[in-house]
Amino acid sequence: MHLLFPLVLSALLFAVGVYGVLARRNVVLVLMSVELMLNAVNLDLVAFDVWLRDALHAGQSLALFVITIAAAEVGLGLAIVLQVFRQRATVAVDALDELAEPDTLVQGGAPAEPVAVPASAASPVPAGAATGPATGSAESGAPRGSGAERGDAPAGGPAGSP
Amino acid sequence: MSGYEVVFTLLGVVTVGSAVLVVTTRNVVRAALWLVVTLGAIAGCYLVLTAELVAVVQLLIYVGAVVVLLLFAVMFTRAPIGPATDLDTGNRPVAVLVALATAGLLVVLLVDAFRQAYVTVGSAPPGSAEAVGGAVFRTWVLPFEVVSVLLLAALVGAVVLSRPDIGTAESR
Amino acid sequence: MIAAAWLLPALPLLAAAAGLLPLSRRATAVLAVAGAAGATVLAAPLAVLTAGRGQHGETAHLLAPVGGVDVTAGTLADGLAGVVALMVCLVALAVQVYSVAYMRDDGHYRAYAAEVSLFTAAMLTVVLAADLLVLLVGWEVMGLCSYLLIGHYRYLPEAPGAALKAFLVTRVGDIGFLLGILLLAVHAGTFRITAILAAVPDLPTATLTTATLLLLLGVAGKSAQFPLHTWLPDAMAGPTPISALIHAATMVAAGVYLVLRLYPAFVAAPVTLAVLGCVAAVTMLLGALAALAQDDLKRVLAWSTVSQLAYMLGALSVGGVAAGAFHLLTHAAFKALLFLAAGAVLHATGSVLMSRLGGLRRAMPITYAATVVGGLALVGVPPVSGWLSKDAVLESAWAATRHELPSGVTRWVAAVVLGSALATVGLTAAYVTRLVLRTFHGVARSDFAAADPPALMRWPIVLLAATAVVHGSIGVRRTWLPTWIGSPEESVGANVVATVIAVTLAAGGALLVVVAWRLDPAEDPVRLLGSRVVGALRAGFYVDAAQDRLVVRPVLRTARLVSTADSVLVDGAVESTGTGSQRLGRLLARLEAGNVQLYLTGLATGAVLVALAVAVTV
Q1: Between B39, B51, B147, which is nearest A50 by CB?
Q2: Which DSSP symbol is given to A127?
Q3: What global pTM score does this model have?
């Protein structure tokens, strides 16, 4: 069999995964797209392993490890997603913009303050419908400390920060 | 085209098709289900390539655990069960361009590089559980252990992150 | 004594500096009068030495060796300077004494006195300067003092405008003046007057013509000749003593003095003299005609000054140096007298508009007599002073038409000057008669309790009147004045033919006015010319309006344009760097929108591009 079959398939699958990561709003869907990309890589690994007739089965072993790590990553990722949902009642990727530069020269755009709802009183808000498209001007107050990575520092409480 | 190639092509079509559906469907749950199809088709590809252990592990873990986890997340985040209209951000056109560029680049590169490469599926060393497992526990035992630790860390991390009181009070 | 000539400007300068001190009114007055008196006391022996005994002296101090043309400062005391300096000092003294009483109710007397002293110092600097640059300094300081003094009455709405107008119009002339000086100095290699005059024969005619024409611009500005004469009538917004000092006797005479000083240079440029002659001829008639229709007493005198200055310059343009100088001296006396008398009228009645005055001769007999004397002098009736000087002017013009003088002035220019001078004699008589009749004769048109002015105002008037009568005796000996001013080959004095013609013309003009007045003593005799003519005459043939339309408005428009351009373009460019940076910053801030997918897109695009680059090159 021509090696190009699995290779091209993996390339296409990878591209589809890239599209999904960049275009989907729901975080869970983004995670699914990440899985697609990982699978593409796995396919490549296995294909090369078979092509090279590797005695050590490096490719397939690494594929196994990748599967494992992907599983762990999904678990952690979903824990974060759930935490975010508890804090914000939304899982839209474009609603999470704390890393935005504080626009001190506000030209009258309404600050898109994310609604902070305690988990207990979280009303059923469909993910993504809470905030409008917020690409571009992001006026959500000061960045909550530099390096506020997802899951690292506690995602700030009620939006009352300066 | 040999038989392998035909089968592989069919499986490939299914894979790519269902992957495209994953990223374009308007229904979150359906996306998860299409993901199952994709992952299953890939397992099939592994089988064609005689990587049996990987195929089985793929089905067990990916389809069995990861997708279930994703479905749980869909449920917990109150994702709309029916069709929703706002599942794509405004980034969509750019994303299409980037994806096409990536695909184009990769395909061209690979085609150019591996024009004369052929996999002899018939006489490939078997990817059976015995072979691969032996390799893992002999040659790759150290990465295996590290991955175990990583799994532990992920487990602890997931538990910690699931605490309900994160960010509301200084609970030390 | 001659070497101490620098003291003459120094004394009034000190008196001016004293204006900075917070002295009482009395002390200020004493100081001002003392400054002028001190200068007079020094000027008298100086005049005797230089003019009488024929001595002259020059001092020079090197101020700045600028390499090429050195700048020196010094005094040049000769007959001309001595005589003119004495005249300036006497008039200044009279005005200072007069002002003590005139400005009694004024709140800013200290500034006024200081400015008058400063002016006197500047004029004396011009008279006694040995270098053109020092002369220029005095010239400009005079312009400054004129501006300050015209604008003295801040409450008058027309005063600030008139002051600015005077300053700007003379400034226009001063540009030419400065250029002329520089041209002469560069070509002669020095600023010293005597050295320049010595170098004149060696300079090319084109240079001399250009330089003298440029100097003529300054003369026209300062001496209010057409077309730069428009400032003088409006300058009457200042206090009357100022009009007497600056705008009758001294500053406006500075232009004439300059021509006298640099006459050899002018003689070597016949084109300039021809231009001067034409300008003088035009101005003579213009001034006299405009004076005929003015309602304001002081404006009549202002236009009259314009006309008389043209007389002097006309004489100079036809080679009558002594005649011009003679008329300069006599005019200073009688014009100052007329202005001070007008000031007395203003002081007594509160108005200078002849349509409101009338019948003052019984209430103010001394003023009336002084005005009549001054008027006769102005007309040139024997034996009062103006007679001889005016005759001298006519005589020199007549002589120039007979034969080409060494100055080379073409005969037709001389003929033009003569014609205008003769016509002006008649017109002068007309407007003087009108002035006297309207102000002092007839029935009083307004109700006021008029009386002769107080002593301090009366005495300068009386003395000046006496001077106006006696002054003319300078010309008794035909060679006195020419020798005094250093051009002994001329002769000025009585000329029977000229006298007869002039008196006839004057009588004719006066008679016409008297007859017209008799028709209706309460009305303006000029109205008989028709309202349109009167309007044109009163507006000075609309030269003022033309200047406004042609020069002032475009300049203002350009200024506004430049100002707008400055604020929009220049300030805008500067500000736009700020706003542009802000906009750019805001644009770049969009990259930091907090949208993770945006970041990832950038990342992916970058990776693809890098891979592409590597793939292509490798």
Answers
A1: B51
A2: T
A3: 0.67
